[in-house]
């Protein structure tokens, strides 16, 4: 191994290696394996946590916003790290939604509004207006 460095989020390690047989150089990326987490849905069902589903929802919320892939990955890593620090193997979907909400509010307010509108099942324009007013007042709850 030539060198090794942690990613910015400390969730992966990039290693530069050298083949001792042919002297070729190559890079490996080692990612942290998450403990198995189950998600408790609001209807009582349980399903395995799906990292790709979480990433998709974040990407939809940030679509066409001035948010870089690196920022999206950082938010995803923060969320996954939060899950790793929880001692429970079952996390309610509501808790996951709140964690995503809080991270998106810091990242991009429009992405936050998009996510919350789906998460809270907004039914009309008044719901959006109310949320925007809360953001303007500094109260995101």
TrEMBL record:
Keywords: ATP-binding, DNA-binding, Metal-binding, Nucleotide-binding, Repressor, Transcription, Transcription regulation, Zinc, Zinc-finger. Transmembrane segments: none annotated. One of its GO terms (molecular function) is DNA binding. Residues 37-127 form the ATP-cone domain. One of its GO terms (biological process) is negative regulation of DNA-templated transcription. PANTHER family: TRANSCRIPTIONAL REPRESSOR NRDR. Belongs to the NrdR family. Negatively regulates transcription of bacterial ribonucleotide reductase nrd genes and operons by binding to NrdR-boxes. This is Transcriptional repressor NrdR.
């Amino acid at each position: 191994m030539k060198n090794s460095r942690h990613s910015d989020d400390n969730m992966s390690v990039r290693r530069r290696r050298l083949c001792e047989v042919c002297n070729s150089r190559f890079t490996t990326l080692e990612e942290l394996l998450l403990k198995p987490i189950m998600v408790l849905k609001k209807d009582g069902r349980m399903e395995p946590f799906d990292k790709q589903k979480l990433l998709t929802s974040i990407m939809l919320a940030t679509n066409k916003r001035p948010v870089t892939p690196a920022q999206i990955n950082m938010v995803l890593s923060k969320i996954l790290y939060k899950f790793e620090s929880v001692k429970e193997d079952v996390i309610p979907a509501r808790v996951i939604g709140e964690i995503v909400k809080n991270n998106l509010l810091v990242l991009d307010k429009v992405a936050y509004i998009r996510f919350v509108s789906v998460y809270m099942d907004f039914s009309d324009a008044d719901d959006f207006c109310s949320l925007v007013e809360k953001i303007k007042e500094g109260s995101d709850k």
